[in-house]
Design brief:
Ferritin; 9 helices; 260 residues; mainly alpha; 2 domains
Length: 260
């Protein structure tokens, strides 16, 4: 009977976590908050059982229930920590982010958060060029690039939406973004009087740097790289750069699109 109580108590926080996981994910709450809720609900269930059934359980039974709940919480915490560790990687010498401190793990979600930032900035840049372009061919090209960036952004957002947020770790994310800016990705805005050639060269540079960023993902998270088909994005970014080079070489009509 004591074994049954212990098993029941262990399962209780796990069951509450399973029930609330979808809601917590939609609300973008962190996994440590989910564990806290599962713990509180498990002990509340134990208390309500005593009140509703008017049972005065001996201290030994209460101790067994409490021990089981704590053990279940420990199992739950270990599962989330295991998943977090699998979603982290150590930087290496040939990584894109050489400025990151060696020995500090990089959460995979930081790559996706930065990727969303890059795709958002790319979309805004190409959308602005689309609105300013007077030539039909140029407008269609900028519009297609803006559409591709939007689709890439949605892909990364969809991946992140499957995970509960982890406790805040802004230092690592900020250091990666700083290194990204140091490498010149969307960090040197064009002047209002930029020429057609300067606009296209700026776009080519950012497409190539974005592809390099996605390639760095392969070295740090090789398993996820294969499962999430990031290579397809690298190919698309490289193709964008090639299309822009062709545009630069063959299109001679001046663009009215200017970066602001």
């Amino acid at each position: 009977m004591d074994l049954f109580r212990l098993i029941f108590a262990i399962i209780m926080p796990l069951g509450w976590a399973v029930i609330f996981y979808p809601f917590m994910r939609r609300a973008r709450k962190r996994w440590d908050i989910l564990i806290l809720i599962a713990t509180l609900l498990s002990f509340s269930t134990l208390i309500l059982k005593e009140i509703i059934y008017e049972v005065n359980s001996p201290l030994s039974d209460i101790f067994i229930y409490g021990l089981g709940i704590l053990f279940g919480v420990l199992v739950l915490y270990s599962l989330f920590r295991l998943k977090s560790n699998r979603l982290e990687g150590l930087p290496n010498d040939d990584m894109f982010f050489r400025g990151h401190k060696i020995g500090n793990k990089i959460p995979m979600r930081h790559f996706f958060q930065i990727a969303i930032l890059l795709e958002e900035e790319g979309k805004d840049f190409y959308t602005m060029l689309t609105s300013k372009a007077s030539d039909r061919k140029a407008k269609e090209m900028w519009q297609k690039l803006a559409s591709d960036e939007t689709n890439h952004k949605r892909l990364f957002e969809k991946i992140l939406s499957r995970w509960l947020p982890r406790p805040a770790d802004s230092e690592s994310l900020n250091s990666l973004i700083k290194e990204l800016r140091n490498r010149g990705l969307f960090s040197n805005p064009l002047l209002p009087d930029a020429t057609e050639e300067e606009v296209v060269k700026y776009a080519i540079h950012n497409e190539e740097m974005t592809a390099d960023f996605y390639l760095s993902f392969a070295k740090t998270f090789p398993d996820a790289w294969r499962k999430m088909h990031i290579q397809e994005l690298v190919t698309m970014e490289r193709q964008h750069a090639e299309n822009l080079r062709d545009f630069l070489a063959t299109f001679s009509v001046p663009l009215s699109a200017k970066a602001t």
